[in-house]
Design goal:
Layout: E1 5-11, E2 15-21, H1 25-37, E3 41-52, H2 58-66, E4 95-103, E5 109-112, E6 117-118, E7 131-135, E8 140-150, E9 161-168, E10 175-182, H3 188-218
Antiparallel strand pairs: 1-2, 2-10, 3-8, 4-6, 4-8, 5-7, 9-10
Helix pairs in contact: 1-3
Length: 220
């Protein structure tokens, strides 16, 4: 009987390296792909510009906001298509409101993520020093932004992993390394766990499909 062995080589909030022994490459590569494409994170998906007297167009401001990584709580919130509210606007279980109201008075001011106010204490920018826009004296920016959970396969702004790599040990083909790096929305460990849960769900669903096909063919 083949002995399967997993060992965490390195673990930080931003990076994790796991060594797999005697695990099929297909499964490790599936974890790599799912870490990028199917682990949900929060990202700003809708922006209402209430005031903007800067030189930057509203669309450019909204685009920048969408690329800001937001801390994510997967236990508290639902994907929009899985939420019981069944609303295109969303509810407190599937979206978070973030607001900003800033002005440059006597001199040019760089507005950063530190001035964004979130209605949720946890879901907020991963870094408080990300520049959003520069305002000249007298200019203002005010908006309401709605963040929702999404998947990296739908848009890059929802990618949980910035790096997801599989490496093989040349001297021992049974040893495979999975390296995951995070943008801070989730820890690297949370990404791997979520990807493993997603893989397990896919395998179960596929097994049920196979059983259904067998039942259909044998009944004829």
């Amino acid at each position: 009987m083949i002995s399967i062995d997993l060992k965490v080589i390195e673990k930080q909030d931003e990076k994790i390296t796991i060594k797999f022994n005697n695990v099929p490459r297909e499964y490790v590569n599936a974890l790599r792909r799912l870490s990028i494409s199917e682990v949900p994170t929060f990202a700003i998906d809708d922006v209402v510009i209430l005031e903007n007297s800067s030189v930057m167009h509203d669309e450019a401001v909204a685009h920048r906001l969408g690329l800001i990584p937001l801390r994510t709580d997967l236990k508290k919130f639902n994907l929009p298509n899985e939420c019981n509210c069944n609303s295109t606007l969303g509810c407190t279980n599937c979206r978070v409101l973030l607001q900003l109201d800033a002005e440059a008075k006597d001199k040019t001011k760089t507005i950063t993520t530190s001035e964004i106010i979130s209605e949720d204490d946890f879901v907020k920018p991963v870094n408080q020093d990300i520049p959003i826009i520069s305002l000249a004296p007298g200019q203002k920016i005010k908006f309401e932004a709605y963040a929702r959970l999404g998947l990296g396969k739908d848009h890059a702004k929802w990618q949980a992993a910035t790096t997801s790599v599989v490496k093989y040990e040349e001297s021992n083909e049974s040893e495979i390394y999975l390296i995951i790096e995070s943008n801070g929305a989730l820890t690297a460990e949370e990404i791997v766990i979520a990807a493993a849960e997603k893989l397990n769900s896919h395998i179960k669903n596929f097994g049920e499909t196979i059983r259904s096909v067998k039942a259909l063919t044998t009944s004829r």
